[in-house]
Amino acid sequence: MDRAVTTDPFCADEAPWLTHARITAKLLVGIINRRELASALIDQISTPKGCAFDDTVRDMVNGRMKATSLVTVACVDSTSNDGVQLADLVAGAVAHQRGQANNTASPTSHKGKIAARLAAAYGVQSFQHVRTDRVNVATHGLRAPKPRLRSVRETSARAS
């Protein structure tokens, strides 16, 4: 698999705010457990008049989970909310370490040191596509190759 090939979710023929909503919903579905009720604070996104970002995300999540798992969603200004600021710090650490892997960021910079300390606090070596009980970092667009289905002819030829 060529890791240099990436996908841009914003290339689709949909409004950018709707793409943000779709990606946010996908992330939330990935972290909400079945039979769990959740609330989310999300950064504000500009939307057209009559469209509510928080309602759209909540409806997308609950639709995908076929349950009312996401009870409330509130759009907040990230500069005035500690929880969203902390999420930005973690996202920045992940992005910085991704840049280190591409030789576009320095591990000895202030951001590099913060990213390394944060990774150590979570008990991982780095935030490079890792999944543990405490950390789940996946890369959008990178999927394992699907297994190729063998035809009946190939299967019977292997058996003989």
The class by helix and strand makeup works out as mainly alpha
Write down the Rg. Answer: 20 Å
What distance lies between the first and last C-alpha atoms, to the nearest angstrom?
32 Å
The largest sheet is: 2 strands, parallel
Keywords:
160 residues; 5 helices; globular; 2 domains; mainly alpha
Could you characterize the architecture of this molecule?
The structure is a single chain. The protein folds into two domains: 10-76, no CATH class; 79-139, no CATH class. Helix content is 43%, strand content 8%. The protein is built from five helices and two strands; from the N terminus they run αβαβααα. The chain has a two-stranded parallel sheet with strand order 1-2. It is globular.
